[in-house]
Design a protein that fits this description.
By secondary structure, the chain is mostly helical. The chain has two domains: 2-55, Arc Repressor Mutant, subunit A; 65-187, Tetracycline Repressor, domain 2. It is built from ten helices and two strands; from the N terminus they run E-E-H-H-H-H-H-H-H-H-H-H. The protein has a two-stranded antiparallel sheet with strand order 1-2. Strand 1 and strand 2 (11-12) form a beta hairpin. Helix 5 (82-99) packs across helix 9 (150-166). The longest helix is centred in the first third of the chain and has 18 residues, at 13-30.
């Protein structure tokens, strides 16, 4: 029923869930610049003090909501076929970044981090994309003869879709099958 987060009173899980759902939806409706803690609280049906008790600012709320949803949206069960698993992960990543409310939140935070050092620090505190890709990448690395580290391989895997989408190109133009094949070739998988 409650969860302690280390500061203040324990939080109600239902209030927390309401806030996390509200922030994604509100971001899509009004944009990052117009997003406020007051608006988040009103949308969630909780008091502003409730939101401030657990999060210092809108970026923290948005990041937690995005990270929570990313864990579900980017989870890819491994099949044992590295190429298929990589393609499935890339499909999930493109959908997350281009069509998901949580992905919109993540993109907004990436943009904000370019000129707000506190948001940049928040994003570096936990790499939600890297975490989601690790299992798929490590399985492909094990099946290969690569000398690349997990971090290097993750950068090679997620870099092309990130660049494509964050530079304003259409998600429908991303060929995840071709990207997966290219990634597997770079890793020298059989």
């Amino acid at each position: 029923m409650t969860e302690a987060n280390g500061r203040g009173r324990p939080r109600s899980e239902s209030a927390r869930a309401a806030v996390l759902h509200a922030v994604d939806d509100l971001l899509v409706e009004v944009g990052y610049a117009s997003l406020t803690m007051k608006g988040i609280a009103e949308r969630a049906g909780v008091g502003r003090q409730t939101v401030y008790r657990w999060w210092s600012n809108k970026a923290e709320v948005l990041y937690e909501a995005s990270a929570h949803d990313a864990r579900n949206e980017l989870a890819v069960p491994l099949s044992g076929d590295a190429r298929a698993d990589v393609e499935t992960y890339l499909d999930a990543l493109v959908i997350f970044l281009a069509r998901s409310h949580a992905g919109a939140a993540y993109r907004a935070l990436l943009g904000e981090a370019q000129h707000d050092p506190d948001v940049a620090l928040l994003l570096t505190s936990r790499d939600i994309i890297g975490e989601s890709a690790t299992e798929v990448v490590d399985a492909a690395r094990v099946a290969s003869s690569t000398n690349l580290s997990t971090q290097q391989a993750i950068a090679l895997l997620v870099g092309p879709p990130f660049f494509h989408l964050l530079s304003g190109h259409d998600a429908n133009d991303i060929d995840t099958k071709a990207l997966a094949e290219q990634f597997i070739r770079v890793l020298n998988c059989p």
